[in-house]
Design goal:
alpha/beta; TIM Barrel; eight-stranded parallel barrel; two-stranded antiparallel sheet
Length: 273
């Protein structure tokens, strides 16, 4: 999916909601275990309940890898259930060099046909560039994460600026705002204003809203740009809104509540021209 198509979907739906798909076999509703593939049924019902009100889905690859070969088949089948107009993110956080990075890119961007993949930039330019060679595909680079451990490296000062800022500024030279995004955690709302001073146009994938406590109003105030420029992910607050037979209905209710707030915030901070 290209940048213009993504922006069009966001404006059309008045939403920048990304639904995370982290299907924990031990947390999905018990009644689904009667099916041959309960995870696939769970994902299907979540997608069917929310696809008209969100703009992206982010399957967490680890939850599928943990189920072995059948899990990876389920990941591929789940991706195919997502409507074409929705942006797809393989949350794999890959990070390697040369041919290995190219093979990761081929696996997720060609074979499974995801629109994007999350990647870890620690190994530098040659670990990112292979993901930028695919037309209308995106590399989503870890920038500033919301976990407690971000203090260990990301916020360390290097040449007068935080390391995460150096990473983002450097990576911006390798790609463009048409094929690269950054992950910025929602629990650091005060950082969005600063990040937008040096990264004004790139889309930011923002986990941490909902169960992790991120403030949607604040991060939108500082993070939205003229093209919206945010994909805000919510996972547990939506897909695990209920563990009963009404789980898909409750997921939709939660997604609608987030979407209504987003529509208001778009009108407030990033109205269409």
């Amino acid at each position: 999916m290209n940048r213009n198509s993504l922006i069009d979907q966001i404006r059309k739906k008045s939403s920048y909601l990304c639904v995370g798909l982290d299907p924990d076999i031990n947390k999905i509703p018990a009644h689904l275990h009667q099916y041959e593939n309960p995870v696939l049924v769970f994902n299907q019902q979540i997608i069917e309940a929310t696809s008209d009100i969100c703009v992206a889905y982010k399957p967490n690859v680890a939850f599928f890898e943990a189920l072995g070969l059948d899990g990876m088949k389920t990941l591929d089948e789940s991706r195919k259930l997502i409507p074409e107009e929705c942006f797809t993110i393989a949350d794999a956080k890959r990070g390697d060099i040369g041919n290995t990075a190219t093979m990761y890119a081929k696996a997720f961007l060609e074979q499974m046909d995801f629109d994007s993949i999350t990647i870890a930039p620690y190994m530098g330019q040659d670990s990112i560039e292979p993901f930028l060679q695919f037309e209308e595909k995106w590399a989503i680079v870890l920038g500033l994460t919301s976990n407690k451990g971000n203090q260990d490296f990301q916020r360390k000062m290097v040449d007068g600026i935080p390391l995460y800022e150096l990473v983002m500024k450097t990576a911006m030279h390798w790609g463009t705002d048409k094929n690269m995004m950054f992950v910025v955690g929602a629990t650091n709302e005060e950082d969005f204003e600063h990040i937008r001073t040096f990264c004004p146009d790139h889309f930011l994938l923002v986990p941490g809203v909902g169960a992790q406590g991120g403030d949607l109003e604040k991060l939108s105030q500082y993070g939205l740009n003229k093209d919206i420029g945010l994909l805000v992910n919510s996972t547990r607050g939506i897909i695990y809104a209920s563990n009963g037979k009404d789980f898909a209905e409750k997921a939709r209710e939660e997604a609608l509540a987030v979407n209504e707030q987003m529509e208001s915030l778009i009108n407030k901070y990033s109205p269409s021209v």
